[in-house]
Amino acid sequence: MSFKKLVLEFLLFGLSKLFGIQAFRDSSFRDRLKEKNCIAQIKLMDDSVGRYFIFQDGIVKSQRGVHHEADISMIFASAEVALELITPPVDSLAQINAAKNFQFVLDGPEDLISWLPVTLINLLSAGAKYGVDLDGGVKRFVNNTNGGPVYVYVKDDKIIRITPIEFGDDDPEPWTIEARGRKFTPPRKATVPSYTMTFKSMVYSPDRLLYPMKRVDFDPKGERNPQNRGVSGYERITWEEALDIVSGEIKRVRKEHGKGAILSGSGSHHLWGWIGYWLSTHRRFMNTIGYSMVDHNPDSWEGWYWGAMHHWGHSSRLGGGDSYSTVEDALKECEMMIFWSSDPEATSGVYGGLEGSIRRLWLKDLGVKMVHIDPFYNHTAGMLEGKWFAPRPATSHAMAYAIAYVWITEGLYDKEYIDTRTTGFDEWKAYVLGETDGIPKTPEWQESETTIAAKDIRALAREWGTKKTYLGCGGLGANFGGACRSATGIEWARAMVYLAAMQGLGKPGQNMGNMQWGTPVDHRFFFPGYAEGGMSGDLAGTAAGLNMFQRMPNLPSMNTSYQRVPRLKIPEAILDGECEGYPTDSKTIEGQFLGYRYPAPGHSKIRMYYKYGGSHFGTMSDSNRYARAYRSDELEFVVNQAIWNEGETKFADVILPACTNFERWDIGEWANTSGYLFHAYGQLNHRVITLQHKCIEPLGESKSDYQIFLELSELLGVSNPFAEGTDELGWCKRMFDGTDLPKVISWKKIMKKGYYVVPAPPENQRPPVAYRWFAEGRKKDVPDMSPLPGDYAGEYGEGLQTQSGKIEFVSSSLNRYDPDDPERPPMGQYIKSWEGHHTSDLYGKYPLHLITPHVRHSFHTMGDGKDSFLNDVKDHRVLIDDYYYWIVRINNQDAESRGIKMHDLVKVYNDRGAVICAAQTTERMPPGSVHSYQASAVYEPIGEPGNSPDKGGCVNTLTPSRSIIKKSHSTASNSCLVQVEKWNGEEGGW
Amino acid sequence: MVKKAYMIIDLDLCIDCNNCFLACKDEFVDNQWLPTSLAQPRHGQRWMNIMRKERGQFPLISVAYLPTPCMHCENADCMVAAENDAIYRRDDGIVIIDPVKAKGQKAIVDSCPYGVIWWNEEEQIPQKCTFCAHLLDDGWEAPRCVQACATGALVFKSVEEKEMEKIVADENLKVLNTDYNPDPHVYYKNLQRYTHCFIGGSLAVKKNGITDCLAGATITLYKGGEEVGVEISDAYGDFKADHLKPNSGSYLLEIKHPDHESKTQEVDLNTSINLGTIWI
């Protein structure tokens, strides 16, 4: 026997002894051993070395030699391969390479194929300590949320409190910015938003799904009764029954209908953590079984993506701008900040806790002038005060044109910048002055569109034209939410770029931003964001190719179906059997032009829908359509994998109960999305990376998403390509190993402590200010990987992504694509909303403009409903007759003329639907416009689903499903006309 | 000297994020911290009650939020109303309702001039904010609401009485007044943002058919012939004379600008008022 074989024999013997030791040390490992009774063996292909292990009721006995009736065999091509793969530390890359080349094979039934390798890995890692012991049997763990990292205090497997993290003595000091003779340093803690503070109530919500369930009148072998979806009740079934039905339907649908018949999609967000996120576990499983993907529209970017991108590039950021070091620049230089459809105090950037609030208060303290342009006197206006303009919704691009008119006629813009950094200005100037269409875009002209007085526009234009000004547009300061999600969103977003260019975008104190992004945190320390795909292995469908595919060994996963369904057209795909979409493609500007059709050539129509995560009723437009689609017999089977029984869950045939991130292992960084929001952690005061402890056991019979997909993949015979013999903690370790973390903290230490704060770099290593390079005619110097090399017209780094490399008033990409499109001409123009005060018939019936901004207190549907603490927040829902109603905000005059008083129940309605809300009578809205946040988690039709008023608060049942322009896949939800009247409890339609 | 517990709440920094209210629920719902409290019901009680107010009329408005916990008064009416010594003051000044002794004493709820004591129907006890006494005793530096506050609107002080008196004087802190002053341990900064009113308006001029905002005008406010305030109109012609007492009667506004004729206007002030556009 060779020396290597002898070593292997010895190693296997050692392994056999370790079982007893680790089972003694670690109760969870002890429990794992009890899961299976089987004979497992590890051997060489030629049977020259072997050892088998008999697992019986948690006891492990072992013998040298090959067992010919072993239940499962782990077979290695040679002793060399075996030693490389089983000698600690585990080398995942070597394992994958060996598996891909058939040097390492698992032979046995599926359940053991996924069980044995994990058991062997746990054998080595069992007994690891995590969390901090406090007095009285309390343990403090760390976890993370979409709003920020938290401490989780647990006693007797029950969460007793969840708090923000205050940094300790071993965490680094924060940065300091010196500006105007003062020093600004953020507090040493991680701030979180309100929905993060409610998580305990969400974990222990009465709406938690604790058992698998089946609709009572659904029989996969008989009557399916799809018409009763959303109406019929449910009965509890076992996991075995549930997984049998779901895996059986996956097989049946694939066999009976063929490629593409399974549809799956998620909400825009999932509970935090890169292993459990929707772009990770869900994506890998779906790729493994082959599916038609729900194609997400760029829902919070729309006008930037379909409009502004054609004038300044930034496809990788969905058409929005970057913001490097704008916090420091604004503190030092700017004299005025304009929040245009921008309420960072409500949207927290996105994922950004309440980190930006303190910075905006610094700016206020410095006496910087503030202007707010928003139909709603929003929370940023409430905090900072200043001048408030409330234009009629979807008309504020008229304000922009009139401001430009004043600048042009009074010489208040940066002519040198326009001459050297932009193209096409003269053509646009002629349009603004009315030389081409006979309509000068004067302050008086815009008055009838916006309702803003001409004198106020002149005053604003003169202030702006003479003061160093930051234009904060959208929640992130240079994109996100608000006016970009309206019928005129394209025109608004490109008008913002035009105005910024006219004032010298990138010069000191002249930039885009609202103090939400652009802090001096370390941008060089690598940890991935969720868009990098976690454990998905999906090179084509995630940003895994940026870093992680080279850094974290894992098998690639590929979807074999080319069919896509545009998310906003799911109902049409199901009910009409056909629809059209345009892709959300961040690679290059022209990607969005490649329209596609459903069904894809040679693909089946959708017959099964695997819904996962948050509800569309609250977040997609005209969402009664979704309820009607669910009740169609075109859909043979619907499974919903969810944590809570809310919104869409109640339309499934089978419900699979998932657990929260507090009940499973994960790893992730606060506010790090990467991909389409590259360097999103630049909105934080401290970068915080967390190993998300499993704080408690899953409630009831719920399981982690990963575990559910694993068990399904066992039944489908694909557990090995799905799991790669790894469990969730194992994936966390693989990811940890692929980042910069091991250079600064050991696995053992982060397991215990749970988080790592990335130190801020020295002042001279902060990123340069966004667009300064562009303003000064240098090559791009901010740490942004995009555009891709092929998208530069000149040398790499020279200019913007546009054909000219400059800001284009007349877009060359639109000129190439469709110069005659009346909905999106190559040059920005004043285009009227297709639903608004000009659509007179509709306006006569529905005289109120409804805006539905991103919700403040919940994060989309997260935190809302579910008997959450948030229901008691006065400005979130209102308790009336034992029911928590969603709020509509209506001006006092409009309320009075309708006989509506504070907290009266009202019906908000139009031709598309009706929603029962609690009225908040207010001066924060102008007469003629009403406000209600999008994203109610509750959908509770008082009659037939899809065809009766909703008392849950899904105001998106009222918004139009029409795309902003035909050649796009977009929501125009902020262009919506409604009527409001007192509700007297009648049930009828609308 | 023993240190006492105080809270300072700055209305300029409160943005109605509700973290204080929610942190309180997180701490007390489903958790009992005897001897200082039984669990708070999941819904219905607001130990940190955030009062909300709008001032003015569209489009000249402002908003204010008033987080209102138990004031832990030195002259606490609830202690007088309580029978059986059911309410006591600790050495650090924190007023605690003993959940055992207070059983059935609903009168305690009504005794509070601030309305911050709540009735637990199931347990038949009055309940309120304890300043998280159980956590302070456990070494925490501040109650949960203060820890969760992102802007520093809520500050907790554990200082001697003399030092607090100095802070109150230095920072011009106020207490929330009821009919009298029960000497509360909760102080407010910029309280007038909630309690007081403004008179605002927008000045404009018309010249050769062109309208413009009138910046730089001097607006002097008189009450009973006496000057009570001077404001300068901003770039939009807007002015706001703030910190006036509600229902304080009639005022005279005198608007002066070197290029224009002066103008006066009378205002009867009940609550904050936006006079709208004033053409000069």
Encode the helix/strand succession of chain B as letters. EHEEHEEHEEHHEHEHEEEEEEEE
Supply the number of helical segments of chain B.
7
As a percent range, the share of helical residues of chain A equals 25-40%
Measured between the Cα atoms of the first and last residue of chain A, the distance is 85 Å
**Weakly predicted, low-confidence segments of chain B:** none
Mean pLDDT over the residues of chain B: 97
User: CATH superfamily name of the domain at 321-520 and 767-785 and 787-817 in chain A?
Assistant: Dimethylsulfoxide Reductase, domain 2
Count, helices of chain A:
30
- Main beta sheet strand tally, sense and closure of chain B: 4 strands, mixed
Beta-strand portion of chain B reads 35-45%
Overall strand count of chain A: 38
Helix-strand makeup class of chain B? alpha+beta
> What is the 3D shape of chain B?
elongated
Q: Name the strands of the widest sheet of chain A in spatial order.
A: 13-12-27-26-25-14-15-22
Structural class of chain A: alpha/beta
Uncertain ranges of chain A? none
Largest beta-sheet characterization of chain A: 8 strands, mixed
Main interface pair? A-B, 60 and 47 residues
User: In the CATH scheme, what's the topology name of the domain at 321-520 and 767-785 and 787-817 in chain A?
Assistant: Dimethylsulfoxide Reductase, domain 2
| Beta-strand share of residues of chain A | 15-25%
Task: Identify the notable features of this structure and list them briefly.
heterodimer, A: 990 residues, alpha/beta, Nonspecific Lipid-transfer Protein, Chain A, Dimethylsulfoxide Reductase, domain 2, Barwin-like endoglucanases, eight-stranded mixed sheet, six-stranded mixed beta barrel, 30 helices, 38 strands, globular, B: 280 residues, alpha+beta, Alpha-Beta Plaits, Immunoglobulin-like, 2 domains, four-stranded mixed sheet, four-stranded antiparallel sheet, 7 helices, 15% helix, 39% strand
